[in-house]
Specification:
With 602 residues, this protein is an alpha+beta fold. It folds into four domains: 66-161, 2-Layer Sandwich (Translation Initiation Factor IF3); 169-394, Rossmann fold (3-Layer(aba) Sandwich), CATH 3.40.50.300; 397-492, Elongation Factor Tu (Ef-tu), domain 3 (Beta Barrel), CATH 2.40.30.10; 500-596, Elongation Factor Tu (Ef-tu), domain 3 (Beta Barrel), CATH 2.40.30. The longest helix has 17 residues, at 79-95. The two termini are 41 Å apart. Residues 1-6, 11-23 and 26-55 have low confidence and may be disordered.
Length: 602
């Protein structure tokens, strides 16, 4: 990552700092199909592929992997051809973990030929039969006319195919919600998940708060989770239609789990823990239209960049401002996003067509940053955000998940509860492998460096019973009568075959993002590595005596309290007051339980 991201952490950022990286992307009207259906990882050049200026218009060639399929036409296929098409659809759905996008009227090389109305109707009918065969539904995302050496109007149609995966393994995307205090984060989530607009005084957020002081102050201080579902037809499923979270899960093919994080600087450690521990797929950065980039907004933006979490921006409270004020806030965001430390290409979303394009480009290019402007009181442009979330594909492909599932089980312990008649319950994310009811695992390290045996009694995802948990999924595991006092946040539950190692001393290659003076040996910082959060002291800075803002080095840290389970290559973030830095673990000095007891004074 560019070390100039430190500008986002240390004081003010110059409004005109740095050259612009590209322009603001806008997908206007039916003439633009930029980003529609391209293979993952390929950059779009932004030219108008569907307009008359480019004849013939092209999309990128069809990719063999991924969940996007091009079809010129599907008119009256033979039975053999139909079965082949169904098999092909199953493959695309598997690649998209239950979702696929079909471009009808497009050749395999990406040429936008288009179809006459009768042929398009027949092709969509065949596509519907194919979807029924695999237990899926189809939704037409958009249609557009193309010019291709024909006097008759010809169209291409973009279709979303979605099914409910087997064994209740619905598609689940985790979205961390960031932004300054009083920007309207909890209010927006309340409107999305409850299905009712806010009254302008925060009524929509009341159901999200977990503590009395949060209700009294109106400010989030803890991490809470809210869910928004979409069924196989792309319709919203929330608490307005269903009374319980279990009913939402049963009715949904796709779930968006919002991780509501604190905006006040006082709770920054909680926000960092939410970003590092809960492994969000992407982040939503909320900015109030009437205040612009203020408070912790810049710092939250820097955290997302430092941890390489893709993010999109929502400008809220546009009902309180004049149009010129909203435009000024958007321009301010565009300037910051284009700075050298960010290297983002802002994309303003103003129509449903823009929202579809933004979702596809956001998944294909890490540099594209969609910007929405909306109101939680009037509901203006709220539907555009829902379209974006509905279309947003998984940001990790099926091959990556399959590779993780082949590894041994590793579950991060992020939360610990005691539930009446159930016993001890832990919440967290399965980093690798597969976890089933009845599995025997070991949990640790304890304060004396040991791992303890336990049994998984039951599993729940989004408060709904689940028998099998797969890599990358978040869940709660019931552990029966296991002593809660032996557990703490930052532990891991792993397969006994893994023979896990622990460490008190580790080395990391870091970039010092911001420090007021010089960073030296003996300095104490709070280290975040995944779900691990503990104070560590700097024992040695290799090849240097001290560090200043923006400099890199390999640093040796020692945990002060108890040993931890770390893996080489894990992302690291450390902080102490205004001091912040990032990096990755390069070496861990494994120790035994006996050595851990000796080091920690047991």
């Amino acid at each position: 990552m560019d070390s100039r991201v430190s500008e986002l952490f240390g004081g003010c950022c110059r409004p005109g700092g740095g050259p612009a990286v590209g322009g603001t992307l806008k997908a206007r009207g039916a003439g633009s199909t930029s980003g529609c259906g391209g293979p993952k990882g390929k950059k779009k050049n932004g030219r108008n592929r569907g307009g008359k200026a480019n004849n013939p218009p092209y999309l990128p060639p069809e990719a063999e992997d991924g969940n996007i399929e091009y079809k010129l036409k599907l008119v009256n296929p033979s039975q053999y051809r139909f079965e082949h098409l169904v098999t092909q659809m199953k493959w695309r759905l598997q690649e998209g973990r239950g979702e696929a996008v079909y471009q009808i009227g497009v050749e395999d090389n990406g040429l936008l030929v288009g179809l006459a109305e009768e042929e398009m109707r027949a092709s969509l009918k065949t596509l519907h039969r194919m979807a029924e065969k695999v237990g899926a539904d189809i939704t037409v995302l958009r249609e557009r006319e193309v010019d291709y050496d024909s006097d008759m109007p010809r169209k291409i149609t973009e279709v979303l195919v979605r099914k409910v995966p087997d064994n209740q393994q619905f598609l689940d995307l985790r979205v961390a919600v960031l932004g300054n205090v009083d920007s309207g984060k909890s209010t927006l989530l309340g409107v999305l998940t409850q299905g009712e607009l806010d009254n302008g005084r925060g009524r929509a957020r009341l159901n999200l708060f977990r503590h009395l002081h949060e209700i009294q102050s109106g400010r989030t201080s803890s991490i809470s989770f809210e869910i928004l579902g979409f069924n196989s037809k792309g319709e919203v499923v929330n608490y307005s239609d269903s009374r319980t979270a279990e009913e939402i899960c049963e009715s949904s093919s796709k779930m968006i789990t919002f991780i509501d994080l604190a905006g006040h600087h006082k709770y920054l450690h909680t926000t960092i823990f939410g970003l590092t521990s809960y492994c969000p797929d992407c982040a939503l950065l909320l900015v109030s239209a009437n205040t612009g980039i203020a408070g912790t907004t810049r710092e939250h933006l820097g955290l997302a960049l430092a941890l390489k979490v893709p993010f999109f921006i929502v400008v809220s409270k546009i009902d309180l401002c004049a149009k010129t004020t909203v435009e000024r806030t958007v321009r301010q965001l565009e300037r910051v996003l284009k700075q050298p430390g960010c290297h983002k290409v802002p994309m303003l979303v103003t129509s449903e067509d823009d929202a579809v394009t933004a979702a596809q480009q956001f998944a294909q290019s890490p540099n594209v940053t969609p910007i929405f402007t909306l109101s939680s009181v009037s509901g203006e442009s709220l539907d555009l955000l829902k379209v974006f979330l509905n279309i947003l594909p998984p940001l990790t492909n099926s091959k990556e998940q399959e590779e993780l599932m082949q590894q041994l089980t590793e579950f991060q312990v992020d939360e610990i509860y005691t539930v009446p008649e159930v016993g001890t319950v832990v919440g967290g994310t399965l980093s690798s492998g597969i976890c089933r009811e009845g599995d025997q695992l070991v949990v640790g390290p304890t304060d004396d460096g040991c791992f303890l045996e336990l049994r998984v009694c039951s599993i729940q995802r989004n408060r709904s019973a689940c028998r099998v948990l797969r890599a990358g999924q978040a869940a709660t595991l019931a552990l029966g009568d296991f002593d809660r006092a032996l557990l703490r946040k930052g532990m891991v539950m792993v397969s006994p075959e893994m023979n896990p190692t622990i460490c008190s001393v580790f080395e990391a290659e870091i970039v010092l993002l911001f420090h007021a003076t010089t960073f030296r040996r003996g300095f104490q910082v709070t280290v975040h590595v995944g779900n691990v959060r503990q104070t560590a002291v700097v024992e040695k800075i290799h090849a240097k005596d001290k560090l200043r803002t923006g400099e890199k080095a390999v640093v040796r840290f020692r945990f002060l309290k108890h040993p931890e389970y770390l893996k080489v290559g894990a992302k690291l973030l450390f902080r102490e007051g205004v001091t912040k830095g990032i990096g990755h673990v390069t070496d861990v000095q494994a120790i035994t339980a006996g050595e851990a007891q000796a080091n920690m004074g047991f």
